[in-house]
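protien #1 (seq + structre)
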Amino acid sequence: MEFALSQEVHTIEKELVTNKYFLVSARVNEIQDVLLWDEQAKIVSTGSGYSSPEDRERRLENLKKMIDDLNYQIQFIKDIAGRNIGCVMINLKPPAETPSEPITSTILHDNSDTINLEEFNKILSKDKANSGRAHIDSITIASDLRGQGVGTSIIDQLSLDLKSKGYQYLSLDTGVNNYAMVKASKGFSFYHNSPYETNKPRLLGLKKL
């Protein structure tokens, strides 16, 4: 999938500028670039990168499999000059969430189409083949462009594209301190949760498309 989007963003000086960004599917020979963006996403989300060279190599092998997997979309975010300014990874058939602790408190945007706790858990627990849900595994933007609305525009465009393909929901998860991700994810309902595999506090977000 490839598409272009136009957006208006405010710079730090509050001057209005217009930019065009493109999502371009990553190729196998670009896997090292994907790995670099993947580590940046990990640092932003958790505060640390890969723990060892072996950890990095395992992740590289996983990314190679993901590029060839039709259930994944790995795409570079490019500007009109062709510069990679970010990367987004979408799982088109995410597994059901099975948290070890109940999802409790909530953080909602004012404009969010609120999803109550019961519905939230019901949607996340559905078998991936029948869930109608896609999941943003990661999204990262170049540091000099963060806070300018690029992430929000990319998520909005992904939402429109996924909805046109029949998806009903879009989910994501991020660290509890990743305020930039929460800010960029307009329309999502967020609940606190501690995933069983890490037992570290996370935020799970869900949005109706």
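ok now protien #2
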Amino acid sequence: MISKYFTLSFMVAMLFLCCQTGPETKWTLLNLEKTIRYTLQLNGSELYYQVDYIKNANDEIPVVKSSPMGLICKGQDFTTGFSFLKKSNVSIIDETYPKLTGKQRQVHHHGVEQSYTFQNSNGTEFTIIVRSYADGVAFRYGIAGNTAGKDTLTGEVTGFKLPLSGEAWMLPYSKVDTWAPAYEAEWQNKIPVGQAAPETVGWSFPALFHVNDCWLLLTEAGLDTACYGAHLEQKPDSGLYRIRLPEPEETYGVAPQEVAITLPWHSPWRTMIIGETPGTIMESVMVENLSAPSVLGDVSWIKPGRVSWSWWSAPDSPNNYAKLVPFIDLAARLGWEYSLIDLGWHEMTNGGDIQQLIAYAQSKGVGLILWYNSGGPHNQVPNACPCEIMHDPVKRREEMARIQSWGIKGIKVDFMQSDKQYVMKLYQDIARDAADHHLMVNFHGATVPRGWTRTYPNIITMEGIRGGEQYWDVNFSENAHTFHTIYTFTRNVVGSMDYTPVIFGEAPGKIPHKTTNAHELATSVAFESGWQHFIDTPQSYLAQPDYVVDFLRSVPVVWDETRYVGGKPGELSIMARRHENDWYLAGLNGEIKQKSVPVPLTFLGVGTYECLLITDGEHRRSFQGNTREVGSDTILTIKLAERGGFAARICLKNE
């Protein structure tokens, strides 16, 4: 009996030890602040992850519930059949890098990283790399192999399963047509989590959610030339938003939907910005942190700035010398650095040609930016020239050398209209060639930023937004005030946004704007863009009160710091931005009702400041301006009109 008992006990003990020393199936990574926990789990032979926000030891909030991971390739399967191999040590990221555009000029990149390596049923190593920060978490995939290895990526099973008891602010992806996709649809305001997109092509990145008292922005970052730009499927079944590839019809069949990959290979970062307030979302620089450092050497020639723009108010102006001169004069008078010459400039007549206009602008100290169609068979926009240049590497570099010799400062490249790998590579090829010729770049008719402004600092701004030029649309005019407050918590979070702001007057053939003029003035601060294209006419701007003209003369486009002050998407947006020692405030009312809002100035440093506050006047097209002394303990109480707003400049007094 003793022998049998001993044998049984020994077997139980060995079974216990085997259970204790068996292969790992669950791994966690906490951010340094111990507020965000990423959990990776091997469930059978499939991979899942979840993300929790930790307020305290007794309050852990599920933000992303158990969600699938994996890739689909032609050569082999990376969705199932996994076994665990190893994990890396946790490494701490701690670096500071400069930015020429964006929310701040010096970025402190601080977080943790850990990688987890598995093998699939073929024995190929598949790695999940995870980074966690104070304001979110991200992961990317890696496939091992040597440079002789090739495969084709055909899809993902990656998803984000969200609690259904929340709200969302989302942009429908657009079906392919002459002008789309270009991220120019209308944002959906405060819809239920789990609501299907209006079209089968799904939802766009970025996507904002408020779930379980946490704010979450989904997007992607670090996209190089080896992948597509992703968006989200139409139907988030039970709150599961799955990755969707670019639509097969994009590029009119010129380029495949699938991605040719060379091993070793890694995906873009699947990015989740997370915080208790929408301010965490607004202030985040996580997209830049997850993107590759600058590949450029000397960047001293890259100069962000303010830009006058004639096309919106006079579409026939770019080929008319006489009509362009007043916009150059406006830039010179207000100290703006540039003027944009839009499509048709190559056929300039009526008093002069492009060479004479360049000489005139140089005499006024104003740099010129020239428009180009992206060209190529992927683009079917009619009668928009110059074209058939930028898609061809030989013609592109020849043209860039030519306009560099003219003294041109940058280019606006339009009608990209696809997120396929072919076009993602074209963006970066254009940026690289432009840098070789000291040309800055604005991409229009474009995708949303995915971190490229860190890698290619000469990418000054990108459109990817339903912007000010859209005032040929009645619905846009009716709802622009609401869209504006959404943009500051969504699209502009992920990178510079060429909205083309600040309309005071009206243009022939356009729908009158219903936002107040103070609201419009505030957009010059609320919307960050390395080139801020001011959309209105010289007559309209110079007819405003002197203090408004002075504000337009002083407002910068380069910011040292950005602070959330208050608000919620769709309702109200108040922010402060610092340029050197001066602070600028912007407030946007997203609703058709008057408001009185407190604006605490706690972001100010020690000392006494002088504040020029510009608010709504007696009617939509008027202002009210006053100057007063303020300090960090001041709370301004500001009245906002329906669709109204305010702007302020706050300068430290010399005492």
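The first helix runs from residue 2 to 20.
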